[in-house]
Amino acid sequence: MIRILTVCTGNICRSPFAELFLQSELDRLSPGSFMIRSAGSHALVGHQMDERSSMKLHEVGVASDGFIARQLNEGNASGNDLILALTDEHRSSIVAMSPRLLKRTYTVREFAAVLEELAAMPDGTLPRGSDTTTVETRWAALLKAAPLARPSARSKLAGNLDVVDPYRQSDSVYDQMVEDLLPALKTIVEFELIHAAEQG
After folding, report:
1. Which domains does the chain possess?
2. Which stretches does DSSP call E strand in the chain?
3. What is the pTM of this model?
4. Which one of 87, 91, 158, 185 counts the least CB within 10 Å of its CB?
């Protein structure tokens, strides 16, 4: 099973949106192969998902029922194959907490850009299929190659690494959160969509 953690500040707006969207979409493509969780660097522990963020999630067809915020710590970070931070500041704080997580930690927009870089590379063929063994083999190879594509991905993003924090902001900022976040999440899903299909 591929374990992915999404991280923001309060764990009620951005990271649960990312968690629940990815879990829903990846379960549809490769059932039983992914476990997505989220946490906050300063979590509102025990709170449900922010109401307006939850509404935005519902608009893309995903429910937030049962979500409860939790605090990020080294214990719940270390067991993941991939950590997707919602800002570069979050990414830096995760690496500072546990330096060995450096190669596994990206901002979500950065990781999407990394996938685009890897897709453009020659001889970048990864195993195709949706069975659990193939998915694990594919993502192991992907995550080994990803750090090599990080510098060019970050360069192309030109500093646009973050997803805006909408908490206690106007509705327009929630719209901006979705504009910042959803294309990156869809890039991750599209990667799995392409590779989950058996090669014809």
Report:
1. 2-108+162-186 (3.40.50.2300)
2. 2-8, 34-40, 82-85, 105-107
3. 0.95
4. 158
Tell me the CB-side half-sphere exposure of residue 103, using CA atoms within 13 A.
9
3-state secondary structure of 132: helix
CA distance 41 to 19: 15
Q: What does DSSP say about strands 105-107 and 34-40: parallel, antiparallel, or unpaired?
A: unpaired
User: What backbone torsions phi and psi does residue 199 show, to the nearest 5 degrees?
Assistant: -70, 125
Q: Which helix (H) or strand (E) holds 18?
A: helix 14-29
DSSP state of 44: -
What does residue 107 show for φ and ψ, rounded to 5 degrees? -75, 155
